[in-house]
Amino acid sequence: MRVALFVTCVNDAVYPSTGIATVRLLERLGVEVDFPEAQTCCGQPQFNTGYRAQTEPLVRRTAAVFEGYEYVVTPSGSCAAMVRQHYPKIGDASAASLASRTYELTEFLVDVLQVTDVGAYFPHTVTYHPSCHGLRMLGLGDRPRRLLEAVDGLELRELPGADECCGFGGTFALKNSDVSTAMGQDKVNNAVSTGADVLCGADNSCLMHIGGVLRREEAPLRALHLADILASTREEPLV
Amino acid sequence: MSGTFVGMPSFPRAAKEAVHNKTLRDNLRHATHTIRDKRAKAVAELADWAELREAGKQIKDHTLRHLDRYLVQLETRVTEAGGTVHWAADADEANRIVADLVKATGESEVVKVKSMATQEIGLNEALEAEGIAAYETDLAELIVQLGDDRPSHILVPAIHRNRGEIRDIFREKMASWGRAAPHGLSDTPADLAEAARLHLREKFLRAKVGISGANFMVAETGTLVVFESEGNGRMCLTLPETLISVVGIEKVVPTWRDLEVFLQTLPRSSTAERMNPYTSTWTGTTDGDGPRTFHLVLLDNGRTDTLADEVGRQALRCIRCSACLNVCPVYERAGGHAYGSVYPGPIGAILSPQLRGTQSEIDASLPYASSLCGACYEVCPVAIDIPEVLVHLRERVADQGGKGHRLEKAAMKAAGWVLDHPGVLGTGERVASRTRKLHPSKLPGAGAWTRSRELPEMPAEPFRDWWKKNRKPKTDGKKP
């Protein structure tokens, strides 16, 4: 099986490790991964901030870049949600077609490849934050949890108030910085209360915000993308 | 007299104060989480909740599509039943109609049923200017009024107050409005409720004019309906000689049968009750029963403009249950006052800028007062896609330009150009990676981020460079 990786602009520029982990993970599961290099940004920041005219060219570009691939996989719930929920409303038939072929990573693993045990090894205590777009717009349900529970050595701890927003919200984090930070601090306090070593999520934009608060407050856990954990094996463990 | 929301600062500035007020944060957190959990349980009891939600949405949408027809039918039925219907285009007109009606009775005081519509138009202040005292009789509205405060929640207007604060307000203020608080009043809920009961009973028995809103108006019979928990509304609706009801035009439903849906969804969404303790209905006037004179003031005040907007009109489905406030993480931290309107929370963020326009500082900031987490949409019993309307209104605000948005638009355009040129993007990423050691820990202009959060460390190379070095020769980026 051959898939196109939609790495997303945040992962490309700031979290390449998540893109690399996604490639290694998919390849380990027998999937051939392609990276169409003309891809840039899905247009979510522009769209959500009210700049529809600036969104449309990015929708056209993204739809053209992934034309012809049966499966487009992305390690980002919110970018997947942008494509799936909004592309049919913003773009033409090719944008609507992309929406029907785009999968968030955990959906692709569980629904298409039909695996929950991906052969990962990660000997840490982990608590999982289900980001809002994955949780509500995509309806990822327990897919991420099932994947994490099958990881060798991993102990999953329940995150109190898991379904509450971390306060990132794209430009909300800047436009309403005080409220955003208050939400992030509550999320971090809940994560710390679990005693876990790692706060895991499937959206690096949320983790950029939560991780930023974690480090500012010198909290005793780190933020990690789910793909980074799933890519870790006994042979090549993530440190 | 309770204050108004005129000249409010933008949401981020108003929220900043609230976020750092620990008492307020604690009061809000406790109250919203309690009612949120109770609502979830009450809703989970109904196996057909999804169908009820869809039915409520359909009834409202159908009514809005044929609003002219149902309003005319309502007017005819109310008139036939002995009532008088008045049409008010805006707040000023509604206030003038009500003030004239009260003056015609020769009275100088009125008792009020809790009503969002009369709050929206600032009726109490307008009546005060005409020398008429309006007494709020809902317990929470009474607390707000006595405290010379503003409501901060649709269902629980005094949610921002705790018991101790309420006791102090009763002790200090009740005497100047009527019957004083009992000596040595404690802060136990039963004592506070008894003090309010005694204070209010005196007003119910004295008042000759009652003023209400309505949760619904049934077009086929000309009947108005109020759902409530305390019974104070029923006192106001039955004891006075004259009843004046001010109701937004979107509150009409075609038939009694339609109420069946909302009788199930409104109480559960709002107070987490299976059924509200009091449902009062009134149809015109009846000999020997209730008020002798009944006036219905049908309020537009921006509603037909809202109806004209294809995306935004869904806000008019709102049945004012406040479920969206109780699950909203932004409301929980910012409090209701920051929204600068009697409609706070997610619904306020889409309703107020539509009813009032987006020209003022507060109204232009409200569509951004959300992280678009979607919790509000999930709980809404009439399925208003609040995030969709928020983004739609952001487009309107961004288009109108104004403070901050010209610069933002330029930045979005520049970013758009870069993102449309992957080569330029790759070069930019490479430069950012290679100079990562030089990045100051606090970037100029990025203060909104770095005041409270660390910036992520830039990687040694962007993903696309890793791909070129490690994978590209295998696939060469060719399409399938």
TrEMBL record, chain A:
One Gene Ontology cellular component annotation held by this UniProt entry: cytosol
Any one GO MF annotation of this record: oxidoreductase activity
Start and end residues of each Cysteine-rich domain: 3-83, 126-210
One Pfam family hit: CCG
Highest taxon, organism lineage: Bacteria
PANTHER family: LACTATE UTILIZATION PROTEIN A, UNCHARACTERIZED PROTEIN YKGE
Protein known as: Fe-S oxidoreductase
Organism: Streptomyces niveus
UniProtKB/TrEMBL annotation, chain B:
Region (Disordered): 430-480
Positions of the 4Fe-4S ferredoxin-type domain: 315-384
Domain Lactate utilization protein B C-terminal: 395-470
Single biological process term from Gene Ontology: lactate metabolic process
Gene Ontology molecular function: any one: 4 iron, 4 sulfur cluster binding
Keyword Repeat: yes
Residue ranges constituting the LUD domain according to the UniProt record: 73-286
Keywords noted in UniProt: 4Fe-4S, Electron transport, Iron, Iron-sulfur, Metal-binding, Repeat, Transport
Residue stretches of biased makeup (Basic and acidic residues): 451-480
InterPro entries assigned: 4Fe4S_Fe-S-bd, 4Fe4S_Fe_S_CS, FTHF_cligase-like_sf, Helical_ferredxn, LUD_dom, LutB/LldF, LutB_C, NagB/RpiA_transferase-like
The name this protein goes by in its record: Iron-sulfur cluster-binding protein
